[in-house]
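yo, MoaB/Mog domain-containing protein is done. seq:
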Amino acid sequence: MNKISAACVIIGDEVLNGKINDTNSRYFAKFCFRLGIKLQEIITIGDDEQQIITTLRHLKDKYRFIITTGGIGSTHDDITYECIAKSFNLRCLLNEQCKLRMQEKSNPEGRLAPQALSDYYKMATLPAGPTVQNYYLYDDLWVPICSINKQVFIFPGIPQLFERLLNGLTPIVKSLYNLGEKDIEYVRYFVKTRMTESQLSHNLKLLQEDASKVSSEIKIGSYPHFGKGFNTISILGENKDAQYLVELMNRAIKEFDGQQISTEEEDEVSNLR
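structure:
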């Protein structure tokens, strides 16, 4: 399996001050899980130039696949394009293809005053240079996914738009990182038990020690569900170890007097407030 390491950067003061709830990082985590990409870091930062530049320069030396979301609108605090360009020593220039798509789809000249029009085209002022590629994935959208070095991908922060564009990027990600259909899946099983985490702790440690001898990618965790009267054990690994993962699941069921539950059942319980 290709070990593609990834990071996600959520940009926006509104996330840090609690005005909006970040759902993009979780959606990206699920995207990575589905493709067998190893998401190793999620960072939330504000609309601060130096923080964005420093963060990107740090991450680009560590990870092969990095996405950012947020900060690409038309207002004064939307500085993501400019800052990411600086982190790669690039300039931002008005992109004529993006401008043309804006004109075709929203007729900005016909509805905006000069100052508002100038601010509108800020969203088409993109990093420029030989390492930059803009992906226009849908005919009805003018907004591109701007990519630098085939490594950093800049997304809008609006969840509905982010999710649609990320899904549309799937075949490109598979091609760029040589993700073959047989090698791109993780496998995860869940076991529900009424034992407490303290009762589980020692034997879970032994289970993890045994699993690590087979693969360092096998991760075993436990998740309490307060007030529900049960905990969940997660057994995660690569699909090449699927048979062994089933053996681990059956061992957990036996040792912890548990029962297997589906991913959907676990998600439903985990996301209850």
